[in-house]
UniProtKB/TrEMBL annotation:
This is Chitin-binding type-3 domain-containing protein. It holds the Pfam family CBM_5_12. Residues 229-277, 286-334 form the Chitin-binding type-3 domain. Keywords: Hydrolase, Signal. Residues 1-18 form the signal peptide. One of its GO terms (biological process) is carbohydrate metabolic process. GO terms for cellular component: extracellular region.
Amino acid sequence: MRVLIPGLAGLAFAGAAAMGGAAEPASCIWHAERLGMAQARWPVGETRRVAPLSPQAIVMGGQGCGAWVREGAGLRQYDSAGLLLGTIDLAQLRQRHAADALVAAAIARQIDAADAMLALDARDGSLWLAAGTSLLHLDAGGKVLASLFHEQPVVQIEVDLLGTLWVLDEVGLGRYRADGSLLARYALGEQYPDVQRVAFDTLGGKLWLIAPRRVWQVEPTQLAVPLAPLAWREGLAYQAGQTVSFAGHLYRAQLAHIAPEDSDWTPAAAPALWQYVGTQPTASVPLPWRSDAEYRIGETVRYQDRVYRALASHSTYPQTGWTPANAPALWRLVSDESPDAPVVDEARVIEVSEPLADVAINPKSGELWLLGQHTLWAYGWDVQQRYQADLATWDIVQPQALRFDAAGETFWLHSAGKLTPFGVDGTARDARPVAADHAVLGTTALRILPTLVLKDPPPKDGGSQPTFVFQYDAMCSGRPCDFDRAHYEGYQWQVSLDDGAVTGQLVFDAVHHTARLTPTQPLADGVHLLRASITDQLGSRSTQLEHVFNVTPGALPTSNGDAPAGDLPG
């Protein structure tokens, strides 16, 4: 569900603009240099350097200018001023986990890896490391959250706004939960050849598949039939929760283990290690909708011989009647065909005239920028071209990398000898000189947080039916998101009074982002506690609001005005 519609159609790339101005966002980026690592900022033009370092990868969180750097056998964390906050030594981490052969093996593959990769989950600040087939999930303190081996050598890792890890390899895509359990595995095959990178538009429910001269925009369900589970065989390491096929049936590992050779510990013969799941399916078929399940945005289900796709993450309950057919705010019909057929829609394709050096996406608007050898393009979430410009306009030669800074809403282009920032409107800003043999860049990730405050709270000593007016919104990496109404209608509200249910109905004003609640039953005299929070479609929850108030005998009813009535979301 695209929740922000950028009104940028028809704009062209502009020439270099003067720096400064209170309305311009602040942006910063960390990048490698020959003698270490440096941070560049716009519009203040500051540069901070940290040496000696030879960073292999740099990632930044959802707010501020701090960074994590991967180098050799360790990770280093720096604050916005370039001061070292802490380190994670992978060799020491392996020693601490020597008793666990699977974890120790996954860590060992990461040490001094030439193909080291790093990704950050902006929701909780945790880190994913990849090297070869090894995947490692660490929290900011170095605690191992998950360790596993992917089936193929890893080409790219990326964490989407849901906290899901996507892994691109040479034959397909893998999708993992934070605990390392596999959510899905997709083959790209002949339908999408030569894919070298993937960009994620989580809010729009889309993937961009990037080949050297072609880009496809697809929904996850448009990808080819998910790859069959790994066929069980001796000598391999298996993770708890991993599904394998054996003799035409599926089994799920109950414990992490290595299957010894010549041991006959087959899934069928070792029920202590493997749980029987069922017969191996021959096609990817959406599961039937259930009234007691949790669904995440983008999932597909079958209901009454039709296929629906979830527009928002939500839980279902038998008493609500929120079936896919009755809840258009939660589900979209995608197929009237037989539910036994996979859902396949036509992908939208972009053809370019020269090889692509890199791509970058604005995850809030869904706009994708393509960096060619001589040309810069921008396409909207609707696959309509926004801009096209010759890099020679800004004396840019040998382009190497392109990144988007979500906090400063700035695209950064790394080329021979300089870094050039661009506004989302295509305006080029003053370039920064750099001295680097290769491009390693880190920019602020998008972090979306719902916000909730009590607007003009009722007196702490008042009547038995006080009116509470809540103000709700969302912040994107420390800046107002300015989403449209559809995003806020997907909020799930948690409101309690004295740790119990509230007898009342929320009345919404979608224009002013307020919700009014008045208990339908008078409250007893004495002290009461109101708690409230909201959860968005991505699973991010606001800070819990708490308000203590007292109902005084004989006090007049309290009110906070008459906010315009709105509809209850969902």
